[in-house]
Amino acid sequence: MAAIAKRDFDAAMRLYWRMAPAYKHVHELQKSFLLAGTHPWGHIAFYHWCAGGNGGLPRPSKNRDADAAAALGPEGRDAILRCYAQAGVVTHHDNLDAFVVGRCNYAKGLRPSDLAETPFFAA
Questions:
Q1: Residue 107, Cα to own-chain centre: how many angstroms?
Q2: Do the Cβ atoms of 99 and 42 come closer than 8 Å?
């Protein structure tokens, strides 16, 4: 946005093309889950968390089968980290427990073992 504000469209487009594969990955990810009747909420939370967001798993839905089908497992986490690496984005993903409960809750002492369930997450 800073490049666009400066009217440096060449710089903005270089950044856009560097990030385009990451956007495509998110859209393809969502498409595959939506076509299966669920949504990748945990995956999207992991995207945010890796880039410095709070994290934390979404609350379970009434459809536990759909939640289980959308669980974020090692393959999904690895794909997201590869996507960021390809775009040159530095990630913060060293403590999965902090992701599961959220950075703020983790700092307060909450741990995944304190949760009744961890929908959308597979170790």
A1: 20
A2: no
Does residue 2 lie within any of the structural domains? no
Domain presence at residue 8: no
DSSP code per residue over 6-30: TT-HHHHHHHHHHHHHHHHHHHHHH
The tokens for 52 are 């410095």
| Rounded mean pLDDT, 75-95 | 90
Total tally of structural domains belonging to the chain: 1
Residue 98 is predicted with a pLDDT of 96
Q: Would you say residue 25 has pLDDT above 90?
A: no
What's the rounded mean pLDDT across residues 55-80? 90
**Cα–Cα distance between 37 and 32 in angstroms, integer?**
9
Q: Distance (Å, rounded) from C-alpha 84 to C-alpha 92? A: 11
Judge whether residue 65 has pLDDT over 90.
Answer: no
Residue 57 lies in a domain: yes
Residue 4 lies in a domain: no
